Amino acid sequence: MADSKREVERKYEATPETRLPDLTRAAGVSAVVNRGLSELDAVYYDTEDLRLAADSLTLRRRTGGGDAGWHLKIPVSAGVRDEIQAPLTDTLPPDLGELLRSRVRNTPVTPVVRILSARDVHHLLGEDGTLLAELSIDEVLAERLTEEGHGTTSAWTELEVELADDADPAVLDAVERRLRKAGIRPSAAPSKLARALAGTAPGAPGTKKAKAPSPRTAGDHVLAYVRRQVTALVELDPAVRRDLPDSVHRMRVATRRLRSAFRTYRRILDRQVTDPLRDDLKWLAAELGVDRDQEVLDARLRSHVSQVPAPLLLGPVSARLKLTSVARRTGSRQRVAAVLDEDRYLALLDSLDALLADPPLLPAAARPPEDALPRAVLKDYERLATRIGHALERDPGEERDVAMHEARKAAKRVRYAAEAARPALGKPAKKFAKRMKSVQSVLGDHQDSVVARDALRTLAVQAHGAGEPAFTWGLLYGREEAAAAERERELPEVWARASRPGLRAALKG
After folding, report:
1. CA–CA dist 367, 194 (Å, integer)
2. Is 448 exposed, middle or buried (0-12, 13-18, 19+ CB in 10 A)?
3. Most buried in the list 222, 304, 352, 456, measured by CB within 10 Å?
4. Nearest-CA neighbor of 22 among 138, 174, 162, 137?
């Protein structure tokens, strides 16, 4: 099983003659200990068209040093990467291969660059001897292994400062001030691989994705929004596989936003192309929803149980809730992992890439955004208004619950439509989206209560069948009923505030 760690480091330009300044004058650093030289031999892997490098991912097989093995580095933010490590083997470990799937799909990864480093390591220690950071001066030799530039080499010297686990990031700032004062400047290359690729095949196309031109037409804006959601899908895939917090939710939201954009802006993007994609996105959202819905339900029920006074907690309430939650989430997590390896999912990613490469634009796409986009948003708004009206007309009970759930889905769609239009329409769209979110929140909490009541009834039946008291489950059920009733009373006022005519007029411009 692969191990993971958060890597926080900074790189600097150096030469073989570079001498370190007195870093004990950096705040927090009390001693600098030379740990000696080590020889590192790393082969970096990528697809033929360098898809991993284009997304700033690095995959290498390295020998030498204290962490020989396979390393996959995934960017988190500037200077911060998650490094997933696996034992040294001859072939790519399956765990790492899965984390690459959304980028490489069915394309193999092969060696692209070999990097040899002679590393001079220094440990920066605090007053109590705690490791604060590791500083290394690397003499680097890179050799291109692909047909493009095969055998070409590039050599340089660089300095790295990597923050130790649990150390204060302020140490990096303090060290950088001392390095800069000594004339040592930050490196322009984000990684050894990036520098090696540029240095061994200088005439080859760049590995960075070309920056899209600024949107001008309605079609430009819609495509920019679609591109952001597709990027989110691809980037969140490894996070979902690693079960990182909130990753499933964010990936599901990206699928919903794509579906919403394809439906709302069907006068801009040809629905003959987008409708099949919407079907596949609906399938993916439903599969992701099994895990996400369980996550939301678990959190809600745990919160409710924690608020029940001890005298009213009759029976093994917490234990039953935990056992039920673990069993259901284990099954849902396994299902999500299987879905991300299905051919249908990978084909969907390919189809989304194809749409962006050759957009199915309709004549309305060429119109100014301030003309075409508000019309589409307000059309969704009118649909929401109709569904809100239906919900408010229903008597409390199952029919109202269903009507409010349908209104919730419509509110989410209007909000997403306004968010997509925000870069073009500015503050009116931002304000409109915020108001629609307030409606969505009320309707969403109501639906969560409906789901929670169903789960609580099931738990009560299970407890009763096991000879346990069902009182606490009934108590929680009653509280959920009261919460739902409160949301129903709240809805008319929230809707009235959100649907002010002046706001719609502002959106129209």
Report:
1. 40
2. buried
3. 222
4. 174
**Quick check: 56 and 190 in contact, CB under 8 A?**
yes
Q: For 206, which DSSP code? A: P
3-state class (DSSP) for residue 112 = strand
CA–CA dist 45, 34 (Å, integer): 32
pTM of the model: 0.89
Which DSSP helix (H) or strand (E) runs through 236? helix 218-241
Between CA 370 and CA 508 the distance in angstroms is 8
Q: Look at residues 259, 239, 261 and name the one whose alpha carbon lies nearest to residue 249.
A: 239
* Strand partners for 117: 40, 140
Residue 500, pLDDT score: 73
Q: What is the pLDDT of residues 242-286, one digit of tens each?
A: 989 899 999 999 999 999 999 999 999 999 999 999 999 999 999
DSSP state of 122: E
Rounded distance, CA 340 to CA 239, Å?
12
* Beta-strand pair 131-144/110-125: antiparallel
Polymer length in residues for the chain: 509
Residue 80: beta bridge partners?
8, 77
* DSSP code for 361: B
In the block, which residue shows the tokens 């439509």?
Answer: 417
Which amino acid is it at 361?
L
Q: Which helix (H) or strand (E) holds 119?
A: strand 110-125
Distance of alpha carbon 86 from alpha carbon 61, whole angstroms: 9
CA distance 226 to 388: 28
| Residue, of 356 and 206, whose pLDDT is higher | 356
Could you say which DSSP state residue 32 is in?
E
What is residue 482's three-state secondary structure?
A: helix
CA 199 to chain centre: 32
Residue 489 to residue 95: CA distance in whole angstroms? 50
Antiparallel, parallel or unpaired: β 110-125 and 31-46: antiparallel
Q: Which of 238, 249, 336, 239 is nearest to 297 (CA)?
A: 249
Q: How many CA atoms lie less than 13 Å away from 357 in the CB half-sphere?
A: 7
